[in-house]
């Protein structure tokens, strides 16, 4: 027996009384939860769910552009109510927003000015139905609607160059509208099909990845000379999978901690891209040089003011930081991510970075072959065959030309330029490349001959001098000395 004051007893009775008169349960879903600045996923899903079901019923609606920018997506306006039915029960949804602007409070992490939230009200007898099935139904439907309506985004981690304040380390985004697709991408058809199959298997592989105990992600390494379509390939992948793209600029990431923060902030169904990985950082072969570097670093450290050393050490993204980013424990959060690296110099990369399991698939983007050329000809000139194709096929076997150069030649400069003259341009360009190659080779080989001859004549001279020495030895006195000197000179 606990002695309780009269107020407690009173409150207890008031609760009982209100639940008798007002037999409803309320659930509040705020837009931002906890201390994080991250938008609640539940809120987003509910927003989408309600937008789908309320457009028929609510009176006050908000509109925004949908996926193809031609259709308006309606959603519930603030302070609006809709009812929903599920499993024979009725549910009331309402939205509210409350201004929280506090001008006198200065904060490093300013809170959003408005606190928005959704409220769900239902009869307490339906509590079990809500917990067992209604909420999961709402989330599932909502997520599907959100995916259907969403406009894909291109995120980058360099918001206007401001490297300080609460904005640093946060992604900013624009709409992703890259025109490249697998149809416009010029490469060997077999290879293209293989990549498409691989991506498809990945997209559908949720259960498979769970079964084999791997995080649902896949790494691609695209390598090859400039202008062979690595960036275009990333665009095509994003369009094929309908994923968002995160373009990670490593040089602006201050340290490993920030890298991890960026990674956690990425959402599922996305491609994380690091372009020119060999230039981004001194990640190349760092592990091997570690010992040497540390020696040097400790000497440098001596000259730094106290406190500076620590900062310097932690102010870099390191190879191990990047490896953790790719396959550390954090990479399992969220799931369904593709990580793509591009480089022009695969040989410069640390093998640890590109081993299978991290970079599961290595794709070489190379010079334009005849099959790739045909794709470009179809896209740029609308031709599938042409009398000049045979010449081009022969030339392509000899000459290294990038798809970017081919594309440039095939682009119609004026409206009246016909396919034939574009192809002629291409042939001319390839002939020029061939001549240049030939003259370079000729130059190289004449150099070799000259070098060879120099060596040969050098040897002859030496032989002659030896001869002279030998013959001189046979002489005697003054003459001997003189002739030897001649020989040497
Ligand atoms: N395989 C290709 N198929 C179709 N177009 C291509 C292809 N490769 C290059 N192009 C054309 O050339 C341009 C440059 O290509 P892209 O930016 O993809 O090259 P990259 O390999 O990323 O080069 P870099 O290594 O310099 O970044 C593209 O805009 C595209 O028009
Ligand atoms: Mg590129």
TrEMBL record:
Residues 292-303, 435-459, 478-489 have a biased composition (Basic and acidic residues). GO terms for biological process: response to stress. Its cofactor is Mg(2+). It catalyses: ATP + H2O = ADP + phosphate + H(+). SMART domains: AAA. Keywords: ATP-binding, Magnesium, Nucleotide-binding, Signal. Residues 288-315, 435-489 are annotated as: Disordered. Coiled coil: none annotated. Residues 216-369 form the AAA+ ATPase domain. Belongs to the AAA ATPase family. BCS1 subfamily. This is AAA-ATPase At3g28580-like. It comes from Phoenix dactylifera. The lineage of its organism: Eukaryota, Viridiplantae, Streptophyta, Embryophyta, Tracheophyta.
